[in-house]
Write the structure tokens for this entry.
Amino acid sequence: MSFLQLKGVEKLFGEVRAIKGIDLTIEKGEFIVFVGPSGCGKSTLLRMIAGLTDIDGGSLHLDGRDITRLASSKRDLAMVFQSYALYPHMSVFDNMSFALRLANVDKAVIKQKVGHAAEILNLTNYLQRTPKELSGGQRQRVAIGRAIVRAPKVFLFDEPLSNLDAALRGQTRVEIAKLHRDLGATTIYVTHDQVEAMTLADRVVVLRDGAIEQIGSPLALYDKPANQFVAQFIGTPQMNVVDTARLPALRDVVGAANAPDGFIGVRPENVMVRPAGSGKLVGRVELVESLGADTLIYSQVGSDGNGVQIVSRQAERTSLTPGDAVGLDIAPSSFHLFDRQGHTVAATAH
Amino acid sequence: MAMKHLALIVRTFFAWALTLLIVFPLIWLVLTAFKTEQQAISVPPQLFFTPTLASFAEVNLRSDYLLFAKNSVITSFVSTLLGLAIAAPAAYSMAFFRSAATRDILMWMLSTKMMPAVGALVPIYVMAQTAGMLDTLPALIIVFTLSNLPIMVWMLYSGFKDIPSDILEAARMDGASIWGEFRHVIRPLAMGTLASTGLLCLVMSWNEAFWALNLSSAKAGTLATLIASYSSPEGLFWAKLSAASLMAIAPIVVVGWFSQKQLVQGLTFGAVK
């Protein structure tokens, strides 16, 4: 039996079904990321697992025990909040030891456990400070430390990095990944940032409008998206998705013999920019973004006014400027087909 | 520079004048308490006289000051503690588990304070009489508690609201029960609010006269009823009335003096930090 099991979990806000019957099983030690756009219900779902929001339908089992109606305090889960939610009147040591003190753990044991967690998180010199006297990154580490000290059954992270600046976010992300590798703790992590999802997760759960769009390993989502939403949500820049009605020529270019009436998707790295006159598609450069390691070239393809924008990504730098005429090629067998409803359609090559 | 100096003098003068005007009755009360009855009603009023403790002695002789004082202490302290015990959970649920009705309930509670107390006098009197509780301490404690509750809930609610709810959620995740949340998180973070609410209600219960006069007399009467008993149909005995009043207000004035900061914070609903 799986470690954490959600069966038909529902949440109603008045008449609105905010969470629509989620089925999900999580194995011990897995790192699961819930990802999706704002308002997709990912945080609500996490709070329902935490017990902070009531479950209106379905059931939740942890380690063979039904915890659907169990109070948060008895679930043995630890949560790291977006706002850190440290106790402002307590020192770092007291923040980290709060749960153990409530559980009447022996003082010497508390000291040893907090000391160990502080060492892992580089907080040893800050144990006597209050949260006010710490930087954002340090507060975040205290919040993580508070969770580690308890050795809970599951770690829950609610967008823990979104209050940090970009540099610190990257660094903390690496630390969280390392921490998970060392502790092997079952983790559920909520984010709207697909880069975090791709880099941290064993499996990613993509949510939209309170329902699961797809569950899979990061690369499985990238290579075999179940639908257009997942295809465009995962990957930066977004996958090019072109309506076949607007650019019929694309069917022949990608070599999709059975392309249905619908959409064709191509990832930017599979679009090659060629000198004008060569390439199977004719386009005109609209914008060039030079990121250093990568260069993104946005081209308008098709007749003016009714054209479609296609972005390509290449490692080489370019001297192209907006307005230049270019040709475009698509790497063979690199396309995705979607029907009018956005579902992925299996493709057969020529 | 000279203008600025002058403005300061004028401002200071008016501030003192206004203060004097406000505390004048209190000063006069203190002076009168130490006069004889003749001195108290003499025209023109005497500002300089040989103070006497005769009125205090007379008051102590005629009525049992200590009994009334004891009643005042019991009713105000018990009603304050009881009020906090009821208001704190109510404010907790309204501050952290808001529903569509929360605002209406709060407004309704406050609106009950707009009603003149005399409107509820007859039903409450009859209830107390039927229950055999006239002139008993429990009757006063219950009525004081109920009449203070709306203010207490409001004050605690506005204080609790400033605590981010995810801190409480964090405590819940850490294994804290509701009581644990209150003890380890809310109480330390809202200590100022809890203290000022308690103090204000202590003062209000101590000063409460309307219900004390109507529901109690010799046995359960508070100091407010003691003062009132010196205004009799045969005429006012100013010196004795003043002596009794001074003895009645002295304890609460001392308490108020030492807790000015909390009281101001409480009265302004936490607006002054």
In short: Chain B has 14 helices and two strands. Residues 83 and 120 of chain B are 20 Å apart (CA to CA). The first strand of chain B starts at residue 231 and ends at 232.
